[in-house]
Fold each of these.
Amino acid sequence: MAIDAATVRKVARLARIAEPEERLEPLARELSGILNWIEQLNEVDTNGVEPMTSAVHVTLPMREDVVTDGGDPAKVLSNSPKTASNFFVVPKVVE
Amino acid sequence: MSELTSLTLKAALDGLASKSFSSEEITQAHVQAVEAARALNAFVVETPEKALEMAKASDERRARGEAGPLDGAPLGIKDLFCTEGVESTAASKILKGFKPTYESTVTANLFRDGAVMLGKLNMDEFAMGSSNETSAWGPVVNPWRAEGGNAQLTPGGSSGGSAAAVAADLCLGATATDTGGSIRQPAAFTGTVGIKPTYGRCSRWGVVAFASSLDQAGPMARTVEDTAILLKSMSGHDPKDSTSLPVEVPDFPSFVGKSVKGLRVGVPKEYRVEGMPPEIEKLWQQGIDWLKEAGCEIVEVSLPHTKYALPAYYIIAPAEASSNLARYDGMRYGLRVDGSNLTETYEQTRAQGFGDEVKRRILIGTYVLSAGYYDAYYLKALKVRRRIADDFDQAFEKVDALLTPTAPSAAFALGENSDDPIAMYLNDIFTVTVNLAGLPGMSVPAGVDANGLPLGLQLIGRALDEGTLFSLGGAIEKAADFRAKPAKWW
């Protein structure tokens, strides 16, 4: 299935990646090429096949619901672009 | 000092144990080799002071009689592994300057056993690529060149830095990761050995995530035995990774050199793809003959869904990547590019922080997961994945392992495939099935092509049966007697 520039704009918005107008057409062509190649999966009969969601047959282990880590704000914040008194500083969300 | 850098890991460990040389000496030799090889661009961060400090501590441990199984051996670490206090960027601008405050489980295991870290190895950005050209820090150059040529070749990807560093004798071994072939294809392109173990064998904790249901760490080294020694240290159950398998780690090195007599080895007919170079076809046949001579029974098997593995992978891996890479939002770590509001800040940060291939995959992943397309693409791919895994299950009722080529070509020139994403994706045609099924796969150097470039053979095993791969890999290594080395030009 071919996708157009408007779809690329929408998907880029969903992915929170700014794509300049002039990149939308070339990206639509590239992505359509890849998706057309993927279309061959429709040749495979998958009726009644259980989707494979994990590469190993294990049940996820449970653990005690206790705190095992924390109490080290300096470590948590050490790679932050902007901090103030033990908090992350982020752009204003609510006016 | 060059004789110290050309030792195998096993010989180096023996030399350290017999006190023929110290860790400081062998580490210093490697530090110099790394410095002299900057033209390869294999390392993105060199940590010579840390290396020599670790070497000194290792020598002290050995003097006290407390040496571990890898004590004093200098290794390279792929930049996908978080290393405490040492910049870890996954070769992406979005993580420039990121210094983890924790150590990945795999590197912690290696250091627990005494390994010395020389630095961080270059790779494709977020491990997305087959040629190392998507690295934000420039491509790695393969130490191998075609005979009579001086064109720069790719070392493969994504673990291109690991492969080049091992091939050029810059380290005794390296960590690597494999999501669709990223250990095995570079191993084939550089005449080195690489194994992707069973999914869940090595902890993914502290490894920058690309596609979580496919990602698996493994070692690269110059011999099968060396990879066995490294994998033994890297593996083990880790409660911090819920998909880490709670199973015993076998003594992998003990499988190398074991007789392979009576083992049944399958040759999947679907791997004879159109346009495969005759040299690779010939090498494959040679591999079959070697294993026959070693006493294996060769059985033709069918894996009918092989051709659908790559298209399924290019839904599943980007879907998981689009979700995993959502964390790079410029708020808590990494790059932040300020916009006029929050959304613009996210969008600009990600636009400037990610490279083209990473963006392409995030967009595909976002598209196939978006409302209205989830069933047609993502769910379909998961069902095809099941059929691919079922193919292997059926084959393994008849055989103990499979033998295939590792890659459809020898190393190609940098720039050769970079404008055609699908041509690039086809590099993983023989390796990607193994990731989808969660099985172990190994690449062993088996010969050179007409241009003198290395070619590899792949062995695929049952889940948790790396041992058989080490035995068969050892048999191929012995028969191939691959001794070619790249001529030093760097």
Amino acid sequence: MSRVIEARGLSRRFAQVQAVDGVDLGLNAGTVLGLIGPNGAGKTTLLRALLGLTDCDGEVQVLGLDPRREHARLMEQVCFIADTAVLPRWMSVLQLLDYVSGIHPRFDRAQAEHFLANTEVGMKRKVAELSKGMTVQLHLALVMAIDARVLILDEPTLGLDILFRKRFYEQLLNDYFDDERTIIISTHQVEEVQNILTEVVFMHRGRSILHKDMASFDETFSEVHVVGEATTRAEAIPHIGSRPILGGRAIIYEGVDRALLAPLGQVRTPSVSDLFVAKIGGEANHGQ
Amino acid sequence: MASNSSSRWFTLVQRELQEYRVSLLWTPLLAALAICVLVLSSVLLANRIAAVGQGFVAVITQEEQISGMNISIQIDDDEDGGSLAYRIERAEGAASEEEWNFSRKWTFQPRAGNAAPADSEVVSSGAAYPFNAVLGVISVLMTLLLLIVVVNYLLGCLFDDRRDRSILFWKSMPVSEWEVVLTKLAVALVVAPAIFIGAALVAQLVCTGLSMVLMWRMDMDPGEQILGNVHFGQLLLQQVSGWLFTALWIAPFYAWLLLASAAARRSPFMTAALPLVAIVLAEELVFGSDYLRSAITRHLPDPTVSGSLPIPADLTSLLLGLVCTAVLVAGAVWLRRHRWEI
């Protein structure tokens, strides 16, 4: 299967900070990748490098194109929502639709209008008059009506309430995603996206510290809830993180056989966010 | 594909006109309207004068001697399109038969320092068709307004979208920065002037009509006095060709403004003005010469000189200017690609 995105040794340095530090990333079609990391981990810079919006060292190819040199051509196949509220505020919804249909060869206006019909976004309203949630809905409607092969979403739901967020991801999964498409989502709100992800990348201080297939997640990671005496025994086994829970501790292991853990307590698969906290916490301790 | 790419350009230009609707569309239309209204009120006012003047006319006709008449126009040269005021007075002494054609004495005296010198192209070309010179005043006013609007447009157009971050949306569209920057330059050099010239032309037609009414009220033959002295074909040709040559001359100035707009982090105006002032001052202080200043001034817009064919000596300056335009536009494109974050 041909790679949709291929990056090797991707680095970007700003004056004081190494924003992205030698990241390798390879994605196939039909992937939904969650890019997860704390603030300042380099997620946005990495995504911008993939989009050709920022200079970087290393090799990048997206759909066989160099994003830096062939940005405009790439944008026929790649869509992105770089941030909430970047739609031009002076434009009306109608003008926006006119513009995208005049410019984008793969835009289906009727489909966008269909998506918008289910929202409260009126055609004659200006973007400046829309609420933040409605602006995101509008942007999503535009993007979903574009028949693109790659969609990159950088914190697309930041600052939205939970109803909007849930609808956003549901719509994305039901009306947009298929085997031909690749979606990258960077977000803090891990819980809401973890069931739609097929792969996950953790970033910390510009490095990719974990890149896992969600299918192999169960095999690799396990979480044990232990109480009482078992705690000491459980903590003796090398683990990547532990946190207090009601009446005991939850301990997360990487690459430890579940049969070995079962006698200690209840074994389950950790949530992405708990694993993220454990991993980043571990990294932070290593750093000190 | 051809229709596809032309619809692309149409969409890009349409976008500019939508964003700068007030300055690029409403301003010329309202200015033209303001001029028409002012002329109309002058006609109404002149009508009153004419009523008073009928007494004189009676005396004049009895004496079988008709005086000449001076009509002067004063221009208030301000941003909102300016105002025109006709003053009609009787000249001392009798006029000879030749001077009967009073419109030869149409003159105009701009008060503001930066307005047209009396011997500018606009006026001197009016020799054959004196009323063209009068209408030329309108086109000078409109050109002045055009320059203010376009300079403002150019300084804002590559800065505003970076400031409000909507550049992230524009960059998500399959449009190259070359297309973006060249569209803006084309709007400044071609589209906006076309709109302003169009509005000026409408105002000129209306003013011609109103002047004919004025003549008719004053019991003169509007056909002979006005239509005989005006040539719209020439007027249009003069304005269009005048602008085309002006465009060639000021292209580097516009490109510089685009570069400043693309480079600015706070104020595009300062980014545009300070380096020019600094470099000119530096040259004068260090070398005591003013080559740069004269080279730059040659390419600064001057609304009163609606262009002429470049004389051979200036051809170098013209070509150099066009080379500079290309370099500056390339610079603006580079900045848009690599240094767009504020």
